[in-house]
Specification:
390 residues, alpha/beta, Rossmann fold, 2 domains, five-stranded parallel beta sheet, 10 strands, 59% helix
Length: 390
């Protein structure tokens, strides 16, 4: 999930930037004032308590605010994250928000502070007052609102500055210039998140090509079990003698050997990338569970599964064409062999795909088209899956 807070003095442009962020990243807007008004208008028990306090001239306490915010968060399940306005307002509420996120098993992604001078804010608010005929936005009121912001917000910003997730944005430019700054930092934030992608598809569907492109775009390493096995044999590694008989006979190499090679590869790449694209693994349900265990030891998990769908006749045409190139595979030799390979893939792999479907992790992509066209279909869903990571 992408969870953001936007701070800034009155007139800094928070409303405009919030609209752009919600549209771009499908975020749910959480406003303390709006949530409070909804509870009061609906006549809920929380709303009645809040109304009584307000009518008595008091301020709604944190005990009620936290329940209202939690309710607002839990009622909004369609977005891919939250954008907070008016909360937190105090040091205590900052801890409250951390607690709410802990219960949701997510975290606050980033806080943006729109840095705009009081002079510019005053000018903007007076212009808005003139355009919208708002008598309440006069210089005296604006000065008081700005003073209140500085008094209450600066101590709160110190809390978040220490956490390392606060980013100051120059808010004096145009709407587009300010948003471009924010968007750049969000992109950097998303690039830091770990990602592990499984590339599914029949032989000839373009798995290897698309896996390589994803790896380059998202700073991932491609792990192909076939390549690992052949590299181990070619290098004369410790497992070469055990692997070679299986490869020569065209049989699946036992999981115990494959797992050791995958773990070896993960250790070699530890700290050098954000994650992996798995191609050719898992091929069985057992391997799917094994992969979950391997990644858990690394402190990560599967982000998404890409399933490239290509018509059978197109697959046969591609594999037949590949047989005439240096990239040919052993099963590209003749049509009957190709068909047998496709049938074997269906028999072994479809149950694994069903497994990931049951966990809502599969993104089905039409793989018929140029390499660039197919990649364009893959990129946005992968970005969305990474954003949705808790």
């Amino acid at each position: 999930m992408l969870n953001l807070i936007l701070f800034g003095p009155p007139g800094a442009g928070k409303g405009t930037q919030s609209d752009l962020l919600m549209t771009r990243y499908n975020l749910t807007y959480i406003s303390t004032g709006e949530a409070l008004r909804n509870e009061i208008n609906e006549g809920t028990s929380l709303g009645l308590k809040a109304r009584h306090i307000i009518e008595s001239g008091g301020l709604v306490d944190d005990e009620i605010i936290v329940q209202i915010i939690e309710k607002a968060i839990q009622s909004q399940k369609h977005g891919e994250g939250f954008l907070f306005d008016g909360f937190p307002r105090t040091y205590v509420q900052a801890f409250i928000l951390d607690g709410l996120f802990t219960r949701l098993q997510t975290v606050l992604s980033r806080i943006f502070i729109l840095n705009v001078s009081d002079e510019v804010c005053t000018k903007r608010l007076l212009q808005r007052a003139s355009e919208q005929n708002r008598a309440d936005d006069n210089e005296k009121v604006i000065k008081r609102r700005l003073q209140e912001y500085h008094q209450k917000t600066f101590p709160l910003l110190e809390f978040y500055t220490d956490s390392g997730i606060a980013t100051t944005i120059d808010g004096n430019g145009t709407t587009e210039e300010v948003f471009e700054q924010i968007d750049k930092h969000i992109a950097e934030e998303l690039r830091k998140r770990p990602a592990n992608i499984i590339m599914f598809g029949y032989p000839g569907s373009g798995r290897a090509t698309q896996a390589a492109r994803l790896a380059k775009a998202f700073n991932l390493h491609v792990i192909s079990t076939g390549s690992l096995l052949h590299e181990e044999v070619k290098s004369g590694g410790a497992l070469a003698e055990k692997i070679e008989p299986f490869l020569k006979a065209g049989l699946l190499v036992p999981d115990e050997i494959v797992v050791r090679l995958i773990e070896k590869k993960l250790k070699q790449n530890d700290g050098r990338s954000r994650g992996y694209v798995f191609k050719g693994y898992p091929r069985t349900l057992v391997q799917a569970y094994i992969l979950d265990g391997i990644l858990k030891k690394q402190g990560t998990a599967i982000t998404t599964v890409i399933n490239l769908q290509v018509p059978v006749l197109e697959l046969i045409k591609r594999l037949d064409a590949r047989a005439k190139t240096a990239e040919r595979m052993p099963y590209d030799s003749e049509t009957t062999t190709i068909v047998a390979r496709l049938e074997e893939h269906q028999k072994r792999t479809e149950p694994v795909l069903d497994f990931y479907h049951n966990h809502n992790q599969v993104i089905t992509i039409d793989g018929d088209g140029s390499i660039e066209t197919v990649y364009e279909k893959i990129f946005d869903p992968v970005m969305k899956a990474i954003r949705n990571l808790k």
